[in-house]
Amino acid sequence: MPRYSDEIIEEVRSRNDIVDVIQNYVQLKKKGGSYFGLCPFHNEKSPSFSVSRDKQMYYCFGCGAGGNVYSFLMNYENLTFPEAVNELADRIGMSLPKEEMTREDMERDKRKAVLFAIQKDAAMYYYGLLRSKTGETGMKYFISRELTEDTIKKFGLGYSDVRGGVYGYLKNKGYSNDLIRASGLVTYTEGKGFRDKFWNRVMFPIMDTSQRVVGFGGRVMGDGEPKYLNSPETEIFDKGRILYGAHLARKSRRDVMILCEGYMDVISLHQAGFDNAVASLGTALTEKNAMALKRFRRDVYLSYDSDGAGVKAALRAIAIFRKIGVTCKVINMRPHKDPDEFIKALGTEEYEKRIQQAENSFLFTIRMAEPDYDLRDPESKTAFQRYMADRVLEFAEEIERNNYIGVLCEKYNMGIDDFRKLVAHEAAKGIANGKNPGTDMVSIPDADYDQNSDTYRKPIPTGKKKTMTRDTGLQQSERLLLTWMTYYSNVYETLKEYLTEEDFSEGVHRDVASQMAIDMSEGKPPDPAALMDRYSDESDRQEIARIYHSEEELKVEAEKSKAIKEALIRVKKSSIERENKTMDSSGADSFKKRLDDRKFLEKLEKTDFKFGV
Predict the structure, then answer these.
(1) Is 103 helix (H, G, I), strand (E, B) or coil?
(2) Which fold has domain 241-366?
(3) What digits encode the pLDDT tens for the residues 550-561?
(4) Does the reported pTM lie above 0.85?
């Protein structure tokens, strides 16, 4: 992917008005100085999605999604940053500079372009054949599966008849044997020549998120083997990175993605209105598949077959999603095997209910393990409890472990104190064996239990503590100060006598404070959309959007001056504490500074701030 200069990125962004761009996706109505509509990133009935033309940014007061025009396209269209730059440049007819390419690079790109063209032509061939006399077998199959003509067209479904059909078609189109062979659509055998890989099969074109055909899946008509056959991996087809149906599902407004096992499950769900369904290509989910799903920034609901193989696949997928930090739940298909069969039997409303009742993936894992133990036998029951304790230790945060401990104790009628001791025992045993459980506060079984604090007094050391990401009172205070200083010049002029950028926490808040000082000194209006381009992390972009989009919330707050004063004192106290930690506390200078700090904070407490806002 090309890398563009800051000047190019800024020019493309500044020439694409964010309101004009977002109106192509979301119906907006002007209200005051902003535009409002239903958020495209979560389901809602009342508009909480705000777009500001002045600031060239958006923010949702419901789910916290926020950013500039690049962020919107990346999240809505599931694009990378360079892809978003390209799309916006195309929108305004701007030519982007071409990187210098070697002869090999140019030849590779040219070859890939031809391979994409071959796949597209093959898809048209299969699609046309399905509607011919030759394709009656395939059409009858799709009709028997209750697919509508619109659905068949939407997914570009087709049919392949005899060996040699698509090969002859592609040769007549002028493609070389080398490239036809490289497409994966044919096989070559010495003495027999070229033959179609797919024949006597209904065909499912596989598309990437740019809606380019990259390969095919084919289901045999009759009793042939294998039942399903996929294109081999090629220069443009990486099975691990492609999800069937993702080119459609990425546009869904639903909060989650539904992961299925097969083509027909995805197609049936889309036809029933569940346009957020996708499937991995092959029998098992890979980590690359999971990472592709993670790009959608939504939770994943598994809708796998309810048989033994489906359960095994679900357990494997749960482990993969947990590893990469994706929240996962499991939809119960029983008494039916798969989503296609379920919807045909019970309908869309019942499937929607099953989505709402989807089971927590951790509890699903425990429930699936339960039949392996005889809970009437004390020894087997203890083994099951040890298994649950080991699974609880997979959670890094103590509060999350405690929540699951509480649920498991209630479900399996265990004493919570006894189970806590077992969890601690398993943690200590794991460390003794050289393992490092994902805990930041697990108790050693021999330590004294403190009933008041509900923990053991002696924690197990687990190395570097995980960084907390939840919102703290300090973060809220810093955000409030930055927001009010941005909106009201008199607040900024007053607070700059007491605050510097160094008083804010490192990262986004300090950067915003620094940029604010520059803008104020030069008399320039804030440009949060440009500031966002410095950050690649989505949470950082959203935090900037939140700072610059909180005016509506603050207007209704009472005792504004008191709120600002309290936030100022909290931020200054935190800043002073951070600074003092880096000083030698034994020297005279340190003593004097601490005395001065105390006097300063006492003065702040007594100061009567009147901001007039």
Answers:
(1) helix
(2) Dna Topoisomerase Vi A Subunit; Chain: A, domain 2 (3.40.1360)
(3) 554 444 344 677
(4) no
